[in-house]
């Protein structure tokens, strides 16, 4: 059954020079998406039923397709790309992907072994090899870099390991499972998608000494993508944050890890900031809000969500990184000036929507301790 009001547009991958598109309104059976305050459009999953030709098309050409999801008013509610395909042909289940497990630009980090005059091995400092590229794979799947890591090894052997890994992983994997108990079951395809924040999978290094403002570091990371020919992150919503952060990066940390660490530092007064990639691959880096966006009355048997002004907000339009209040929870509780101290309020860390109208919201923290810990370079504290 097609989920009411939900429509999906699938297009060729953004790195492919083509404008082919498909609309899946009629074939769509199930749909769910997840959006996070730290990450933005995170993941989505839908199931499409149909004939064998449609299933074959998705299995052969579906990986990497650009996906846009709309509600009944044609408002975009999610955007990303196809990372994995699962097709059921009766007793035979075929899985292709994940796409981002592919590797077509590979380096290796290792401790170089040399030999002294007595032919004894000497382990040197850590080194990172040059990248070896498979340009044919990159044309098909975009640039998907990986840095391997190993211990003491000679340079020629390390490069041989790198090259072997590249040959083995330059194409997405396909696996199959056959079960006789599944004979006669329906033919369908389940499509697993990820948001474009997951393409922040390259090693980010910056040998600039000194420091950046936090927003400048975010911008530097976003501009460093190896897929700049097709993936440009919009920066109009990267707000100014004058917190000084270290510019130096030489540990091959992934771009997403660098951004998460920068976001965790908050601002100069340790207030929380949030980051996400949303519609049209636009990056949003902003201070967490301090006012109510949504409300929901527990006494409402229809379980409607409303704006703070009282207008109904549909579950597929709810976004994380905002505050919701339950005004008839703990009746008589005095309103707190700081929402973090109000037990009736919840900061939405993650939303999970499942068509047609099921919504799950996870609450998160907006206190200052996490930012203080991040500034100290600690991973956390215990009690």
**Proportion of beta-strand residues:** 35-45%
The average pLDDT score comes to: 89
The SSE order reads EEEEHEEEEEEHEHEEEHEEHEEEEEEEEH
| Largest sheet report | 18 strands, mixed
Write down how many β-strands occur, each being a DSSP E stretch of 2 or more residues.
24
User: Count of helices?
Assistant: 6
- Work out the helicity level: 10-25%
**End-to-end span in angstroms?**
50 Å
Bulk shape = globular
Which class do the helix and strand fractions yield?
A: alpha+beta
Low-confidence stretches: none
Integer-rounded radius of gyration? 24 Å
Please give the domain count.
4
Structural description of this entry:
The structure is a single chain. With about 375 residues, this protein is α+β, with helices and mostly antiparallel strands. The chain has 4 domains: about 120 residues; about 70 residues; about 100 residues; about 70 residues, no CATH class. It contains 6 helices and 24 strands. The strands form 3 sheets. It has an 18-stranded mixed beta sheet that branches. The protein is globular and about 85 Å long.
């Amino acid at each position: 059954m097609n989920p009411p009001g939900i429509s999906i547009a699938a297009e060729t991958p953004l790195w492919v020079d083509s404008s082919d598109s498909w609309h899946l309104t009629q074939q769509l059976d199930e749909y769910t998406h997840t959006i996070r305050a730290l990450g933005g459009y995170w993941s989505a999953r839908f199931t499409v039923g149909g004939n064998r030709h449609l299933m074959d098309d998705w299995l052969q050409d579906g990986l990497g397709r650009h996906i846009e999801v709309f509600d009944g008013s044609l408002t975009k509610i999610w955007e990303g790309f196809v990372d994995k395909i699962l097709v059921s042909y009766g007793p035979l289940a075929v899985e292709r992907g994940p796409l981002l497990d592919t590797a077509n630009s590979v380096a290796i980090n290792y401790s170089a072994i040399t030999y002294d005059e007595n032919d004894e091995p000497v382990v040197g400092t850590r080194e990172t090899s040059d990248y070896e590229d498979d340009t044919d794979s990159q044309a098909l799947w975009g640039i998907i870099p990986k840095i391997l890591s190993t211990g003491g090894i000679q340079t020629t052997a390390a490069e041989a390991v790198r090259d072997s890994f590249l040959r083995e992983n330059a194409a997405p994997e396909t696996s199959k499972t056959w079960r006789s108990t599944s004979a006669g079951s329906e033919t369908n395809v389940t499509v697993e998608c990820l948001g474009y924040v997951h393409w922040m999978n390259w090693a980010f290094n910056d040998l600039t000494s000194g420091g950046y403002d936090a927003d400048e570091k975010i911008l530097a990371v976003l501009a460093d993508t190896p897929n700049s020919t097709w993936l440009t992150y919009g920066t109009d919503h990267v707000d100014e944050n004058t917190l000084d952060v270290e510019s130096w990066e030489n540990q091959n940390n992934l771009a997403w890890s660098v951004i998460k660490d920068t976001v965790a530092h908050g601002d100069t007064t340790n207030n929380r900031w949030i980051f996400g990639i949303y519609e049209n691959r636009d990056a949003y880096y902003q201070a967490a809000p301090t006012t109510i966006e949504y409300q929901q009355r527990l006494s409402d048997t229809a379980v409607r969500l409303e704006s703070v002004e009282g207008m109904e907000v549909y579950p597929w339009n709810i976004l994380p990184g905002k505050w919701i209040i339950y005004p008839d929870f703990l009746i008589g509780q005095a309103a707190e000036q700081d929402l973090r101290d109000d037990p009736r309020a919840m900061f939405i860390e993650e939303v999970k929507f499942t068509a047609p109208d099921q919504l799950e919201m996870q609450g998160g923290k907006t206190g200052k301790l996490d930012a203080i810990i991040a500034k100290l370079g600690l991973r956390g504290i215990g009690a």
